[in-house]
Amino acid sequence: MKTKLLVLCLSTLFYSMIPAGSYAASNAVITNKTSSGIETSSATIAPSIAPKLSLSALHKLQWQPVNTYDTQTVILSGASQQLNNEDIRGAIAAFALPANQGSLEITLNSLIKDNQVYSPNVLVLDEQLNPAAFYPSHYFHYQQPGIMSVDRLQGVLKLTPALGQQRIHLLIYTTLADLKSSTQMVDPAKAYAQGVGNAVPDIPDPIAHHTETGTLMLKVKSERDAGNILIGQVFSTPAPKPVTVGSTQEVSSSPVRTTPAAVPQSTAPAAKPVLSDTEQYFNDAIKRAISHGDIDKALKLLDEAERLGSPTARETFIKLIKSKG
């Protein structure tokens, strides 16, 4: 039995070393590394470009702190913050997220009301307000209403703050191009007919016009309070890894996008080797996981440790697995 466990773990470890890009995912695209160290998506259609904003303008914004245990609802109105940029229009939202609670999974909803909706773009910045990732408006897709939800635009962001930061930032805005477009919804009668298996009526779907104001709902889960936020699944088809926000030794994959997204080059200082305390933390955590028989968790810890530059995590993992054999 122990021999079979050893073979299974080492085989899983081998497959976990294969880059995520070697798997075919229905919504994944090819990635290319930019000179800033952040990978951006590559496709054959016109690119979406992140705005170039000055540090002075970003420092003037009021960044609203987000509690990872709550859902934040923000009403954007004419009295909300705005940015003086030739492409950005109307109200904006600026959030500061905790960077010391592990990987973050952020669900952003823009609610549709009276056939109007705010079409969001999201620029992710590190603690020093250097751009790290960009999610254009077409990343946020229309979602039909449910029992506890309304018509909305929704997108999920998966981010991993680099060590040493206290916070990262989300800048949410809409653009002149977004205001010229609209979102096609699904008529409630059609949705009902589809749900119960009846013939779908031939009626036009309503249109939601994009506006400079609206209502946003932001929900943030951290690795600490949400259980396991997987950083590359092992025993099933792997999901795209979170994007790393801030300077690290190695760079994780970019968020999944339907078109490429470019960001200005970061001026963050060069990455430093992983700290000895951090390295020891991961080695101890791997030991505890294996001692409790949680090989899946140990592999996730190994993946995270090596992504941050640990030179001993893999050796620790293999020695412990062999000792159990």
Structural features, described:
Residues 241-270 are annotated as: Disordered. Keywords: Signal. It comes from Xenorhabdus khoisanae. Among the domains are: 57-226, Jelly Rolls; 276-323, no CATH class. The chain has helices at 2-16, 55-59, 176-179, 188-196, 276-291, 295-307, 313-324, and strands at residues 30-33, 39-42, 48-49, 64-65, 71-76, 88-98, 104-111, 116-117, 121-125, 131-135, 141-143, 152-161, 167-175, 182-184, 207-210, 214-222, 243-245, 261-262. Helix content is 23%, strand content 28%. It starts with a helix and ends with a helix. α1 (2-16) packs antiparallel against α7 and α5 packs parallel to α7. It contains seven helices and 18 strands. The strands form five sheets. Strands 5, 7, 11, 12, 16 and 17 form a six-stranded mixed sheet that branches. A five-stranded mixed sheet has the order 4-6-13-9-10.
Secondary structure topology:
Elements: H1 2-16, E1 30-33, E2 39-42, E3 48-49, H2 55-59, E4 64-65, E5 71-76, E6 88-98, E7 104-111, E8 116-117, E9 121-125, E10 131-135, E11 141-143, E12 152-161, E13 167-175, H3 176-179, E14 182-184, H4 188-196, E15 207-210, E16 214-222, E17 243-245, E18 261-262, H5 276-291, H6 295-307, H7 313-324
Parallel strand pairs: 3-18, 4-6, 8-15, 12-17
Antiparallel strand pairs: 1-2, 5-16, 6-13, 7-12, 7-16, 9-10, 9-13, 11-12, 14-15
Number of strands: 18
Low-confidence stretches: 14-47, 226-239, 249-262, 264-272
Q: Tell me the CATH architecture of the domain at 57-226.
A: Sandwich
Rg computed from alpha carbons, rounded to a whole number of angstroms:
22 Å
* Number of continuous helical runs: 7
Query: Helix and strand string, N-terminal first?
Result: HEEEHEEEEEEEEEEHEHEEEEHHH
CATH class of the domain at 57-226: Mainly Beta
Query: Class by helix and strand content?
Result: alpha+beta
- Content of β-strand: 25-35%
| Helix content estimate | 10-25%
- Give the end-to-end Cα distance, rounded to a whole number of Å: 9 Å
Mean pLDDT: 75
Query: What form results from the Cα inertia axes?
Result: flat
Q: Characterize the biggest β-sheet.
A: 6 strands, mixed
Question: The CATH topology of the domain at 57-226, please?
Answer: Jelly Rolls
